[in-house]
Amino acid sequence: MTEQEVFNTLLPLLREVTGARAEQIRMESGLMEDLGAESLDLLDLSFLIEETFGITLEADEFERQARERIPGGVYERDGELTDEALVELKKALPEIAPEKFRQGLKRIEVPSVLNVAVFVHMVQRKLEQRKLEQGEQESDDA
């Protein structure tokens, strides 16, 4: 699916979860900051995405990826993300403006920086991954 197709499919889900009007929802819209979502809304959105697209989302997927790239490093200290963690989250979430990953950002605040583009691109990656896995499965069966 193209970015626009995924966005168009996500739009009614985002409206349902946040109560925002369609014209308020753009790729750069922050789910919490701009659309008023709360933590529980993000869980609801993840469930709706899984149901709609037939993919699985992991709540800590971005953080897990960042942690894996800090072998032997420290991800957080007293609840605040380390400089190493901030660098890796910037890589894992290129859709987010780098200034959102400021020093002093707490681990529990990471969901507050997520925007619509993060979810659009995550869905695209998951769909592509599933397509590749199905192709591999079909070639194994042949």
Key descriptive features of the protein:
mainly alpha, Non-ribosomal Peptide Synthetase Peptidyl Carrier Protein, Chain A, 142 residues
Describe this structure in words.
Strand 1 and strand 2 form a beta hairpin. Helices cover 53% and strands 3% of the residues. With 142 residues, it is mainly α. A two-stranded antiparallel sheet has the order 1-2. It has one domain (3-130): Non-ribosomal Peptide Synthetase Peptidyl Carrier Protein, Chain A, CATH 1.10.1200.10. The mean pLDDT is 91.
Topology:
Layout: H1 3-18, H2 39-53, H3 61-68, E1 76-77, E2 80-81, H4 83-92, H5 116-141
Antiparallel strand pairs: 1-2
Q: Mind telling me the C-alpha Rg?
A: 16 Å
- Strand fraction band? under 5%
Largest beta-sheet details: 2 strands, antiparallel
Number of helices: 5
Helix/strand/pairing class, anyone?
mainly alpha
Class, according to the CATH hierarchy?
Answer: Mainly Alpha
Number of strands: 2
* Widest β-sheet, arrangement of strands: 1-2
CATH architecture: Orthogonal Bundle
Question: In angstroms, what separates the terminal alpha carbons?
Answer: 26 Å
| Annotated CATH topology | Non-ribosomal Peptide Synthetase Peptidyl Carrier Protein, Chain A
Domain tally:
1
